[in-house]
Amino acid sequence: MIPTHKALKKAKELSLDLVEIAPNAKPPVCRIVDYGKYKYEQSKQKKSEKPKKREKEVKFRVNIGEHDYNIKLMHAEDFLSHGFKVRIQLQFRGRQMAHKDLGFELMQKVKEDLSTMANVDLEPKLNNRNILMMVSPFPKEKQVRKFRKEDEEYDIDETEAAHQEHEDEDPHDEDDHVDASDEDATSEEAASD
């Protein structure tokens, strides 16, 4: 701790500035720095402190299995319990677009299953080949889980990683693509009949 007049004198000797860092502290905290450089670093630090995106996404397909459905809803509950908004997206592929009603039925089921955890911000809406729905979490004290036990421990980072891994390895992708050799065998069988 140095008296103010001595700190100013030392700053002038070093060709620097005496900058007040914490004015509300008792006694106020000051530093001897280059003021221009100090302001530049402050602005740089503010830019790097972008707010984290408080939104997660869970993707479904029309022909999702019961176990996959439960896992995805458990992940959605985990995200909601940590205060994230959740965007629920149902993707159609190829001829599935002819059965949009099945997609809306599935989204209605998701909406009902998450009704104890979240409020629907955006009702299910068709957007090109997707149906989108947005939900935001209830306050913690009003949330009631269906897909994970209350006392069961989990790590949100692990949940996010598992969810991402599950999204990347979509097992239903194989069902959508028919192998050319299978088509040839089917057409040969039909021709021989």
The CATH topology of the largest domain turns out to be Translation Initiation Factor IF3
Q: What coarse outline follows from CA principal-axis ratios?
A: elongated
Secondary structure tally, helices: 7
Q: Summarize the amount of helix as a percent range.
A: 40-55%
Give the helices and strands as they follow along the chain: HEEHEHEHEEHHH
- Please state how the strands of the largest beta sheet are arranged side by side: 3-4-6-5
The number of strands is 6
Mean pLDDT: 81
What would you give as the CATH superfamily of the largest domain?
A: Translation initiation factor 3 (IF-3), C-terminal domain
Q: State the CATH class of the largest domain.
A: Alpha Beta
Radius of gyration: 29 Å
Number of domains: 2
Assembly state here?
A: single chain
Largest sheet properties: 4 strands, mixed
